[in-house]
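Notes to self after the Tuesday call (sharing in case useful).
The group wants a holo model before anyone commits to mutagenesis around the pocket. I volunteered. Ligand is adenosine-5'-diphosphate. Logging inputs and output together so the record is complete.
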Amino acid sequence: MKKVALVFVLAVFVPSLVLAWLAVRSLRDQQFLLERQQSLLYQGVADGLVKDIVDMVGEDQRLFADKVSALLRNGDPLGTAKAFDDLLRREWPLAQVGFAVTLKGEILSPSPYGRPEARLFCADNTRFLANRESAEVYLNSKMIASNPNPQPPSGTGQDPNLDPAKRYSGKARNVLPQQAGGFAQKPGKDDDDKQLLVSKLAASEAEFRQLIGAESEGTLARFVDNKLSVFFWRRSPTDPQLVFGAQIDLHSLEQDLGALVRQVEPALRGEICTALLDDTGKPVAVSSPGFSANWKHPFVATEIGETLPHWEVAVYLLDPAKLARSADTLKLTLGLLIAVLLLAIGVGSWLIVTDLNRQLTLARQKTDFVGNVSHELKTPLTSIRMFSEILTEGRITDPEKQRSYLGIITAETARLTRLINNVLEIARLDRSEKQYNFERCDLVSVAREIVKTYRPQLEANGFSLRCELPDAPRQVRADRDALAQIIVNLLSNAEKYSDRRKEIEVRIDSKTTPLPCVELTIADRGMGVPPACTEKIFEKFYRAHDSLSSGIQGSGLGLTLARQLARAHGGDVTHSRRENGGSFFTLWLPSLREETQGGSDLFHEAKDPHH
Ligand code: ADP
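Result:
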């Protein structure tokens, strides 16, 4: 049994646990995967938008370069440079201020005494553009590569075939993602620090001349008093010492970019809101009007890059709880599957263990049975042999003793016959080969016959046998031999399991409820059946008083057979406790109705009522 339990634990229990553990792990991974898939998808949206924005700014810069070339074609370079602010703004509305500087540090345009925007520009930028002070700027001279027809200025060494992949420098920003019903982190006072901390941009610090180096054109962005200024610049194609530039009107640029941000794919329109955030983290354009969120905690975000430093495209979930809900549904479904699987394994294991136990008990009972039957066969055979040898040798001359010995031989032969009959009958029943010869018979006469046969033996063994049999017949539909076998088994049990009080009673009664039946009860004053075993004693091979402890031989088949035979007759054999010690064993059978008692047609058909 221990070995079986070990095999069971190793073959079923441990693998089930491992399986369950793996399933629970995969449950967690599934949730993570779902979140990851979503964030990858939306990161793609943000990256795509940033690329479009950078392309649009690149296109603007190309336009600016074209404007500069066109203006230079129309007049002398110096004259154009001096009037550049007015000329450019007239031609190109995106310019807030146009400027022209020489690399020696001379500011040709705008005039520091002109309109307010020009005055402010000069106040903020003159020292930097005139190379008198270093400034912290974000450079992006590679924007030129988006120009399909680059025109490198002579002597600059600019490579026109720059890697297109480097055209924009958008970078996914590490964000604290939105979560169901709130945010991963409550907005706190140090939020802004965190946002700055996760930016991947690096500023360069130098004078204007150093910053532009040998490049022919590019963008510059710098913060003056925490306010962002973006510049496009381009060298004069004829005079590399002369640089033309424009400070971009950010308000106009925002409007152009806003149109891009609002173009969300129709399939995603119900899922996400895209927003363009400026360097202070405020939205300058959102795709879903009226949507509001903690703007500092998008689901994913991508920085635009050096052109618009600390600006970013952010993606927000319109319904942040939806992701959690899908994850929960997935979790629930998989969880249920795992639970069903475990339940199936549990039930299966329980069934296997129960069946195994049953098989083991049966195997043990069969072994006991073989031992008991061998003993049961040997004991009567030994007595028969011994007494017949004594009688054959003629050593006993006393006729009384001879009769007694012959009586013993007869009784032992009967015991042998009973045992063999029981075993054979059980085998027949097991193979469903039992044939019944049903006929109308009188239970009283069958009982009387058996009592008559057994009385001498019982009285010889000190039993008092009381019979309360009615005078009138009690008709039942039965196989006579089967009836006799049931009664003999009950009577011999009453004899076997009686100890000091050797009193046996046989009684026959008629009952009308719940249905008309005849009851034959055999009562004894023996050792009784232990309360826990009152039903088990009808199981095959089961013995409540085993041979070892009680010294009473038996096969555990007598009651099984009696009950099976009785049930085949539509009746049963039952046990009940008797007051003041002993047992009642009752055989009840349906009685034949009076009006059918005379007829014989009831008995001519099937031999076995089960068929
Ligand atoms: P066995 O050959 O062991 O007598 P049975 O099927 O006839 O087999 O009986 C099953 C068990 O029921 C017996 O082993 C015994 O423990 C119990 N039993 C049967 N009849 C009686 C009785 N009259 N008094 C007490 N116990 C009984």
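Two things stood out.
Residues 489, 493-494, 497, 524, 526-529, 537, 543-545, 554-560, 583 surround adenosine-5'-diphosphate (CB under 6 Å).
The chain is about 45% helix and 20% strand.
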